[in-house]
Amino acid sequence: MSDSAFPLLAPYIKSATTKSLWLADENFLDANLPPNDAVICITNRIDLHEHLQKQGWKAFFSDYDLSIIEDNSLERVIYRVSKEKLVAHHLINEAYRCLKVGGELILAGGKNEGIKTYFTKAKALFGMGENSKNAKDTWLAKLIKTNQHSDDALDDKDYHQLRTGCIDDRFEYQSKPGIFGWDKVDKGSAYLIEHLDSFLMTLPEPPKNALDLGCGYGYLSLNLTHLDIPVTATDNNAAAIIACERNFARYPINAKVIAANCAQGIKDKFDLIVCNPPFHAGFSIDGDLTDRFLKAAHDHLNEQGIACFVTNMHIPLERKALKYFHQAECIMSNGNFKLIRLTHKM
Ligand SMILES: C[S@@+](CC[C@H](N)C(=O)[O-])C[C@H]1O[C@@H](n2cnc3c(N)ncnc32)[C@H](O)[C@@H]1O
């Protein structure tokens, strides 16, 4: 898997000699860059954070909270645009705030990712800029901050603010931009919850605990409340962790949230695992991610437990799962989604 936009930024990260900031998005994938002392890195993905720290980078994990950086203090900000428009708007605004007059924002991304629109909006904010087309319809844009104040901030819909993302007949889900499907209930996840009992009746006894693997804002966890068991929810995305914590505080659920890369570091094992796995890292389909989620489910499932996965029909999850599980059975499908039950050898 390769990203054609990120390599356009690598020379700017390597060549930075004074106070610079690299905003690392999930699109960074597994690229390796030698650490540069002039650059600090902020990412909202805990796996990237761990990866960068291991390589020797000065890296911070947060929901792109740039308040640790003073106004007008940076020479260069480097950013490969994110999948979510409001994340990109928030970060372009913050780059403007943090840069000195004369400082530069270097952006890269694909035409189909909105890079040209970001460039136009950012140029109005910054005052000066140029962009150039590269291979595979990817663009590199350089913006120069020419003024101390501007009325042309991009609309980020108050990025950090949690809000009611959606409501169903059981819960009002607090959420925010930057989280998977932040303003809706995912149809696959709803299908899993609708048929949760079909999974549970195959257990020898009621589950004593549960793991929500890749929890997002916590939809699956909240819909386990009636089971009255401790739930552990985990995700790699800082925004998801924040929203989940808020949702768990608002309802009577015995649940905790842990930021982790595919549940790494969670020592407990569980009778019930619920999961709507991701298939994309940023703009790319990531086949390895499915494998890593299956392995995480395997490693965290009790001997007699069940892992309940929901996926799109076209994902060959059952075949992949047999690498890790004794049994992988599609228990139900509706033409769009299928529910898969995974078990160890009994
Ligand atoms: C398809 S979404 C499901 C979200 C939620 N369970 C729901 O039903 O709305 C998959 C989730 O996996 C998370 N994810 C992606 N890569 C991950 C990783 N390496 N470790 C943990 N979670 C990850 C994403 O942030 C996202 O929240």
Walk me through the topology.
Layout: H1 6-15, E1 20-24, E2 39-43, H2 46-54, E3 58-61, E4 74-80, H3 85-98, E5 99-110, H4 115-126, E6 127-133, E7 138-145, E8 163-167, E9 172-175, H5 187-194, H6 196-200, E10 210-213, H7 219-222, E11 231-235, H8 238-250, E12 255-259, E13 270-275, E14 280-281, E15 284-285, H9 287-300, E16 301-312, H10 317-321, E17 327-333, E18 337-343
Parallel strand pairs: 1-2, 1-4, 2-3, 4-5, 10-11, 10-13, 11-12, 13-16
Antiparallel strand pairs: 5-7, 6-7, 8-9, 14-15, 16-18, 17-18
The structure holds S-adenosylmethionine (SAM).
Walk me through the structure.
With 346 residues, this protein is an alpha/beta fold. It has two domains: 6-145, Vaccinia Virus protein VP39 (Rossmann fold), CATH 3.40.50; 163-343, Rossmann fold (3-Layer(aba) Sandwich). 27% of the residues lie in helices and 31% in strands. The strands form four sheets. A seven-stranded mixed β-sheet has the order 3-2-1-4-5-7-6, sandwiched between helices. Strands 12-11-10-13-16-18-17 form a seven-stranded mixed β-sheet, sandwiched between helices. Strands 8-9 form a two-stranded antiparallel sheet. Helix 3 (85-98) runs parallel beside helix 4 (115-126). The mean pLDDT is 94. Bound molecules: S-adenosylmethionine. S-adenosylmethionine binds next to helix 7. S-adenosylmethionine (SAM) binds at residues 47, 180-181, 186, 189, 214-216, 219-220, 235-237, 240, 261-262, 276, 278. InterPro entries: DNA_methylase_N6_adenine_CS, RsmC/RlmG, SAM-dependent_MTases_sf, Small_mtfrase_dom. Keywords: Cytoplasm, Methyltransferase, rRNA processing, S-adenosyl-L-methionine, Transferase.
